[in-house]
Amino acid sequence: MLVPWRLDVPESELQPPVMLACHMVDEAWEMAGPEQAQAFFRAIGNRIARAYPLGELRSNDEIFAAMNAFWAESGWGRAVLRFTEDGLRIVHAALPLTPPEVERGRWRDTVVAVVAGIYDYWLGQLGGSDAIKTRVVATSERSVEFVYGA
User: How confident is the model over 66-87, as pLDDT tens digits?
Assistant: First the structure.
């Protein structure tokens, strides 16, 4: 799998698309309001997920394993998923570190939006509704907790 957005390499080895994206993050948040920037980065996540669909998986274990295989290969963390009364809880840990060129808060907001967009697509592909979105319920510097459900 080609992962041009991989960030867990030395700065001198960052691929040009990653370097360009890092410089564009601050610009996107400055040029658009927070809602527009978040929607933009969520759409990018959706597009990434369309390029790496989960496929025909039958069990929750297969689905969760496929998600974590993608996250591991891309260097964008790992997820623990569990079903609760309010839907599917997703704790996504080990988010990529902030590149030196990007402001920390904006980077976290960008990564959270991209990851949410990926989950939106994947869970919609598995039978979810377009009306249901992955909601953020808690964040820290390197992790985020989502709920997908009504």
Answer: 999 999 988 899 999 999 998 9
